[in-house]
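Throughout our pipeline, every protein is held as a single compact record rather than as scattered files. The record that follows is passed on verbatim for readers who wish to inspect the format.
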Amino acid sequence: MALKDFENGLKWDVPFNRDMPIPFVKHCGRPLLTKENYHEVFDMTSDLTPEEAASPFARYFAMGPACPSPENRLATEIGQEIDPSQAFTVEEYVNAMDKPNSCDLLTGYCVMPNGVGFAQMTTITPGCTAEVMCNFLDHFNPPGDLYYKSWFPGAHFCHYPGAAVEDVGYGVCYVRFLDGLTEKDVGMPIPGKYDKYCCGITGANVRHWPLHQPDRDPICIIELCYYRQLPDAYETRVTFWIGQEFHDGKATMHLPDGKPVTLDLVRSLCLHGVWETNTLMRNVMAFWKDCQD
């Protein structure tokens, strides 16, 4: 997968429905990287620019990453991988998620028998209503890349339309979102047949290139995000299948170098997902509080 190949693809668009709000990325507005301007990433850092540092929104970056719940910290520790029988394929996603009492698995990681890495992480935020989320999506508008940087301070660098630069847990990567996936792609009604709290699904086929080795073959990942608006809380559940892509209702294998995904890599991505989602939701709630004061 050469550098020129990741200049193509589709933007990951997320529709904004005020009745069922789901979070989305606000990008920097710069054009997507090409072979000609890729060199700009080599001096990129997560530090704030003077404009970002002068913004009142900089205080959310200064708060640093938000520590996940004790349950999520335990679930992502070394040696705490789940039994592969608890994992499910992307084709089984709807049956696994849309069932009475919702999905049994909240947070966990493993390598499946076919060599694909599986990770799922769930963040539940008490007090986050549709009004709270809409307030954040409408009014949390910092300059430059401060929106993305404050999502995971120190790990998020930049978000282009349909791409990002960030430390994904196993190194800083150029991340490309090639195909937007929605509830229609996985065959799930919103709200669900059983899960009436489901307010949306987003996702993408994602590729990770090591930032300083853009001509290497990427790590291919399917990512699906499942959002639930509970009566007294907001739930975000993110699922990764590492070593696959999803097209026309079916997963295709793309194992890194043709070898099973390592458990360390899966855990690293799972850990990253837990921290970034928890930090985003901390910002949502902190911004709501600030707006009320």
Observations:
- The chain has eight helices and ten strands.
- The mean pLDDT is 91.
